[in-house]
Amino acid sequence: MAFSRRRFGLLVTAPAIAAAVGSPAVAAPARTDVVGALRRAAAFLDERLSYRGGYVWSYLPDLSRTWGELEAARTMCWVQPPGTPSIGHSLLDAYHATGDGTFLRAAERTGLALVRAQLPVGGWDYVHDFAGTASLRRWYATIGANGWRLEEFRHHQGNATFDDGGTAAAAQLLLRLYLERRDHRFRTAVERALRFVLKAQFRGGAADGGWPQRFPHRPGAVDRTPWPDARPPWLPDDVGHGMEDGDYTGHVTFNDDVLGENIKFLLMCAATLGRRDLLEPVHRAMRCLHRLQQPGPQAGWGLQHLSRTAGGRPAGAPAGARSYEPRALTTHTTQTNVTQLFHYFRLTGDHSYLARVPAAIAWLDTCRLTDEQLGENPLLTGRTHPTFVELGTNRARFVHRFGSNVRNGAYYYDYDHRSTLSHYSAGRAVDTDALRATYDELMSLTPAQVADLKARSPLSGRPIPLPRYFSLRDLALTDLFRDAPQPLPTVTDAQVEALVADLGPKDHWLTPADAVTNPYRGAPPADPYDGTAYMSKHVGDPHDTSPYDPRTPPAEPPYAPTERPLVISTAAYVANAGKLLAWLSR
């Protein structure tokens, strides 16, 4: 999808509310009415929408079509947020807010769906099919294989992934469910997940303490993407293309904050299960991120880093990944990793984690987008930095594509800032002033303040309860500290009234779909396409199964702008339920 899959809740808004100055005051809703509305919505999800307790991302109201990141079969559940774990966390949060066992029972059914979806190795893949492996392979060979921009779904890999926070979100939910009633079914699954996380962690060398994107390594994994013989005449001869460092799933992965999510899960288990043995893997992971910061003047990080020497390049060097992720430093990853270093200092009181933060910020200041780049590419509006910065030259690298589908098309990269991808932003919003302010704040802490942080840190080895709510906002490592504040979003009585009214007797919220997809049509044509209609669109020709906004389709027949269909969205449910829970908890 075009949006961040782990911050989906921020994109879902409550129904429009008449709240202009001078509007009549709205009477406060009755608590029993709000709890009753939540209960009805949860029952609808559990009894009507879920499949054996599992969820995808969105559903037509008659359930005739369903979607995760791609169109999904009815028998599937999506592990990536905002799928099955996200709903489970929301249901458990509702139980914590109300004490109503309806929510706990629904959350447990969702948890048991994840237990069934857990792979023998202990982790999860993006998606599970309750109809069996043969059904899942058919989906990969048809819908998955033809999602042009979703290369991770082109093949059924059969192993587990840390990507997109799916494994972390599932494991965290099962831990929470176990802690509720000490149900051995959840404890067994949590232990399997812990063994998976520990076994997948790299040992020794520059990669020590990091994690790959997928585990265990699968021989024969994809390590190259086709480069069509027939290419448009307008394509420059000197563009880069392909997977520069081969199979990227075994590299140390910072993309989607893999280290941060795994550290969070390990700390949760250490603090609630008495597993002090998990603290050393946490320390190793923190040291890995610290170690792999590149030397100045380009003191940043990439999406992935080599886990071992390859192609004459040392372990720890930035690596390329998918064909639209060239070998480069990445500005948004650097911002995320600097933020992680701030957390590591708070966890440990060790100033060495802050030592090279100024160098990272100084590098970010050297590679801002230019006025020309911003002025000539509307897709860069609101961005401050290029996504990819070339090693050595410090020049921005921009990614494009030609063709119309997985057979006749390909991605390439060069220095041209125009006509970039729409589905993978060429620019990022990086707030170096905020990073600098946080650095200054942490460096100004007194020894007594640092000692207080260390005493309340989950690395202290003392028991610390988990936060009460997981679905109202993204939890940071600092939310795991003893007595950490748990701020709730501000929700007005009028917003609550509108949400309850919009739920109505149908017991579910309808929201415009974020995207639609073309149905699978068989093998796409290999005939060359020399046009540019698909360069900056989310979808290619009608054989492409990638999601796209129907209001702004490619300017090629048979596409024509249409309105977004109304769907039952798991993201909308989590966001709307979160507003009601925040109101109930005020």
TrEMBL record:
Signal peptide positions (record): 1-27
GO molecular function, one term: lyase activity
Gene3D superfamilies: 1.50.10.20
Region ranges (Disordered): 514-562
InterPro entries, A to Z: Pectate_lyase (IPR012669), TAT_signal (IPR006311)
UniProt keyword annotations, A-Z: Lyase, Signal
Compositional bias of kind Pro residues: 550-560
Protein name from the UniProt record: Pectate lyase-like protein
Organism from which the protein derives: Saccharothrix carnea
